[in-house]
């Protein structure tokens, strides 16, 4: 399985660190309706910047594929058949996102797929739904948005059900393919990973894979257990991604800079190693505090992009909770 080493991780990291400054993960949850993003996430660069000041940064990845980065990454395939959009970002950014799409296309947005339920990826759904865009999502994602749903990271903040116009018109549980603009867009369900309704979006011709928050270049993995996420499923989803793509495929994380398959290998190896260390400590009867204090991520702290003590500890606690079978909401 090759290049799964810390050295590989370091090599990929160097190129992206400078870009981390534009990756805004969260802001403090302030009200019931505020987009929670990954609310339990610690501070990252840009934390606290008012959303009004967030600009959409457009980057051409291939001849007809672009990433659009606000606080997180959207992606668009453009061409004569219209626009295929991945993730709608926070509701307050939807108009800026639409304007950015019009800069690189004729503005006919045909489809929108959400990688997962969090409002930094689905908040603009209503805006695009009202424009007549066909929304697509995993059935579990649709079901969660359709009812009172818990924000990311277990923050006790319940959001109201989304209106029907913001819900997927096309929902799926299996591999789903959209063919347009000369490309084959594969929607690959990756359940029980970051959440229970994750989708990986693979543009076969553009050679781009969008991972949502199953893979991030902004801190240690965040497993949203309250929305059905699991460490085990995230490791499996990284394997699905690795198997689906080639060495030159552009891998777009939910947050942070574009990466590659080598980084997926390195991330998966890191997750397995940290999980195994936590498992050993659990077998020794350690408490969650003792496990965190043992710093099971220490070999990787310097190499994970955006890694902090805070998001490392969060990741360790999520592993611990899963291993000991703690219940979730
Ligand atoms: Zn996110
Ligand atoms: Zn997320």
Global Rg: 18 Å
CATH topology: Metallo-beta-lactamase, Chain A
Category from helices, strands and their pairing: alpha/beta
Strand content: 15-25%
> What is the level-2 CATH architecture name?
4-Layer Sandwich
Q: H/E order of the elements?
A: HEEEEHEHHEHEEEEEEEHEHHH
**CATH fourth-tier homologous superfamily:** Ribonuclease Z/Hydroxyacylglutathione hydrolase-like
Q: How many structurally independent domains? A: 1
Helix run count: 9
Give the CATH class.
Answer: Alpha Beta
- Order of the strands making up the biggest sheet: 1-2-3-4-5-6-9
Summarize it.
With about 325 residues, this protein is of the alpha/beta class. It has helices spanning about 5-15, 95-105, 120, 125-130, 140-145, 230-245, 260-285, 290-295, 310-325, and strands at about 55-60, 65-70, 75, 85, 110-115, 135-140, 150, 160, 170, 175-180, 185-190, 200-205, 210, 250. The chain is built from nine helices and 14 strands.
Structure description:
The protein is of the alpha/beta class. It has one domain (6-263): Metallo-beta-lactamase, Chain A, CATH 3.60.15. It has helices at residues 6-16, 94-103, 119-122, 125-130, 139-145, 231-244, 261-283, 288-293, 309-323, and strands at residues 57-62, 65-69, 73-77, 83-86, 109-113, 134-138, 149-150, 158-159, 170-172, 176-180, 183-189, 199-203, 208-210, 250-252. The protein is globular. The two termini are 37 Å apart. The protein binds zinc ion (ZN) (2 copies).
């Amino acid at each position: 399985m090759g290049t799964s080493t810390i050295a590989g991780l370091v090599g990929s990291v160097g190129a992206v660190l400078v870009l981390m400054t534009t990756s805004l993960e969260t802001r403090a949850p302030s009200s019931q309706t505020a987009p929670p993003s990954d609310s339990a996430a610690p501070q990252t660069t840009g934390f606290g910047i008012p959303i009004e000041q967030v600009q959409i940064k457009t980057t051409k990845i291939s001849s007809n594929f672009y990433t659009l980065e606000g606080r997180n990454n959207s992606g668009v395939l453009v061409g004569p058949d219209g626009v295929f959009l991945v993730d709608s970002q926070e509701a307050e950014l939807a108009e800026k996102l639409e304007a950015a799409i019009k800069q690189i296309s004729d503005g006919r947005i045909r489809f929108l797929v959400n990688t997962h339920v969090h409002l930094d990826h689905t908040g603009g759904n209503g805006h695009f739904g009202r424009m007549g865009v066909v929304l697509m999502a995993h059935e579990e994602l649709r079901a969660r948005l359709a009812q009172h749903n818990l924000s990311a990271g277990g923050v006790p903040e319940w959001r109201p059900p989304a209106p029907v116009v913001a819900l997927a018109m096309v929902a799926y549980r299996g591999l789903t393919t959209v063919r347009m603009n000369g490309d084959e867009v594969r929607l690959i369900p990756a359940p029980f990973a970051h959440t229970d309704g994750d989708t990986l979006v693979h543009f076969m011709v553009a050679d781009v894979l969008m991972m949502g928050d199953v893979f991030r270049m902004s801190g240690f993995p965040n497993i949203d257990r309250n929305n059905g996420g699991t460490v085990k499923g995230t490791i499996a989803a990284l394997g699905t991604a690795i198997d689906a793509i080639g060495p030159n495929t552009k891998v777009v994380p939910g947050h942070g800079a574009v990466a590659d398959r080598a980084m997926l290998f390195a991330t998966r190896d890191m997750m397995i190693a940290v999980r195994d260390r936590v498992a050993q400590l659990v077998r020794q009867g350690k408490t969650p505090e003792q496990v965190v204090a043992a710093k099971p991520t220490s070999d990787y702290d310097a190499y994970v992009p955006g890694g902090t003590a805070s998001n490392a500890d969060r990741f360790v606690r999520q592993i611990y909770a899963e291993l000991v079978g703690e219940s979730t909401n």
